[in-house]
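Annotated sample (chain length 243).
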Amino acid sequence: MCGGRGTDSSWDEDAPTYGYLTREDVTKKVLSGANLSGSWLASLDLACLNLSGVDLSGANLTNSNLAGANLNDSNLSGANLSGVNLSIAHLRHANLSGADLRGAKLYQAYLFGVNLHQANLSRVNLSGLTLCSANLTDANLSGAFLASSYLDGAYFGDATMMGVNLPMTDLSNANLSGANLSRANLSRQNLSRMTLSGVDLSGANLTNADLSGANLSGADLSGADFSGTNLRGTVMPDGSIFS
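Output written by the structure step:
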């Protein structure tokens, strides 16, 4: 999986004249401490490279292979990461704010403390990933799949999570304030004592979920399915306490 030349080092007439690089160019520039901001790195094989702390903000990495790469503390803000392979990559405390990750492969990627503010993760498979302490404020997670993901301390404030699937995912210590969870699948979720104030849960599947002691003040529950849901001691949208 690691090593090898770029998948396409030929000239692309649509690529910018500045920053069009090969794998070898990237390796040399990283070793020299160069800034790779805005570089054209589309469809390159960059697997297993050490890119920790590297500035790749605004770079075009479309369909590139970064499997197993070390991207800890790197700056990927505003980067085009659509279709990129980040399987088994390390992105601890990396900055991916505003990045486009649609179609990205993140199998077993390590995302502890990553900044995904305003990132586009629409329909991305985030199953089984460690997103502890991640910043997902204003991120687009519409239709994303987060089965068995680790979200302890993750902040989803004002995130768009319409139609998101969260089976077997522990949300007990995640912050969902102001998130849009309309039509989300939250069946059997443990949401006990969580602060869900202002959350849009319209049309959400909350069957057999535990919402005991949760705060739903100001939340939109229109059309939500509460079949078998535990609402004991829950603060309802109008401020009343369910008994």
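Annotation: The radius of gyration is 20 Å.
Annotation: Helices lie at 23-31.
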